[in-house]
């Protein structure tokens, strides 16, 4: 129980510090730390990540940073496609799932380590006057201009996020954050807040689906979930005091170590 609580706090802390990527550590913590199988770990991880992300999303809503219409569209498509991922996960051998998850962690680590160009962008409230992207903020209202291209882009992102969420038990922040940076002109604070809302919605839907399929969460899982929320609160409070680049390098290093451990176990 103590180990489950410790691992939950660490996962929530990393989620709060990195904004969205830390949730990917939930499954390895449950598999390597508590001895669960991938299929057992997925619903517990989704519940923990979703609960912790909801705390951050509520904070983002209070500060007017969440693009809630975009978040709801992505989550809706994610909900529709999440059962596809859950079905595929139950058809694949445990070793294949662990290998897929390890490769995913390597990809996340690579993205974290890669230095990106610092482009001058708009504020989170829509003063965009730079490069055209798929989804642009209206300069008068500060909201998205809902063109067909923008709607299709966010819907496709939701579908992919839903499949990966169901398959590997992750919230999808590692997909949503870089996709938002590439495809929209929202700045980072708004991206993180919107991502946390999407993660909380998709995770909640995934957990409901798992419960309907007969999955149960034991006391260890419950302790992990409660501790992850506490870690998220702490992470949000100290995130502004930690250099962003140091966080990226540290998180990438952890991802690589965990990926190697999961590959060896597979």
TrEMBL record:
Topological relation to the membrane, as annotated: Multi-pass membrane protein
Keywords associated with the record: Cell membrane, Membrane, Transmembrane, Transmembrane helix
Primary residence: membrane
Entries under InterPro entries matching the protein: TM_pro_TauE-like, TSUP/Inactive_protease-like
Signal peptide: none
Transmembrane segments: 6-34, 41-58, 70-89, 96-113, 154-179, 191-211, 217-234, 246-264
Subcellular location field: Cell membrane; Membrane
One GO cellular component, as annotated: plasma membrane
Keyword Acyltransferase in annotation: no
Pfam family, one: TauE
Family to which this protein belongs: Belongs to the 4-toluene sulfonate uptake permease (TSUP) (TC 2.A.102) family.
Protein name stated in the entry: Probable membrane transporter protein
Organism: Pseudomonas fluorescens
């Amino acid at each position: 129980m103590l180990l489950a609580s410790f691992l939950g706090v660490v996962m929530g802390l990393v989620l709060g510090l990195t904004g969205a990527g830390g949730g990917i550590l939930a499954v390895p913590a449950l598999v390597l730390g508590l001895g669960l199988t991938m299929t057992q770990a997925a619903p517990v991880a989704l519940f923990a990540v979703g609960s912790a992300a909801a705390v951050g999303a509520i904070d983002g809503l209070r500060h007017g940073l969440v693009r809630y219409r975009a978040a709801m569209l992505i989550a809706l498509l994610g909900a529709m496609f999440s059962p596809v991922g859950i079905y595929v996960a139950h058809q694949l051998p445990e070793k294949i799932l662990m290998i897929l998850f390890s490769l995913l962690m390597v990809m996340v680590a690579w993205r974290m380590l890669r230095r990106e160009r610092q482009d001058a962008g708009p504020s989170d409230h829509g003063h965009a006057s730079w490069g055209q992207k798929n989804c642009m903020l209206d300069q008068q209202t500060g909201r998205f201009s809902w063109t067909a291209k923008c709607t299709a882009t966010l819907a496709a992102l939701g579908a992919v996020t839903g499949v990966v969420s169901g398959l590997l038990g992750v919230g999808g922040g590692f997909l949503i954050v870089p996709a938002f940076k590439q495809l929209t002109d929202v700045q980072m604070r708004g991206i993180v807040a919107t991502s946390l809302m999407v993660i909380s919605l998709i995770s909640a839907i995934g957990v409901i689906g798992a419960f309907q399929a007969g999955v149960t969460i034991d006391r260890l899982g419950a302790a992990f979930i409660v501790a992850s929320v506490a870690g998220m609160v702490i992470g949000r409070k100290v995130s502004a005091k930690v250099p962003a680049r140091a966080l990226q390098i540290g998180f990438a290093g952890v991802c690589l170590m965990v990926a190697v451990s999961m590959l060896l176990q597979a």
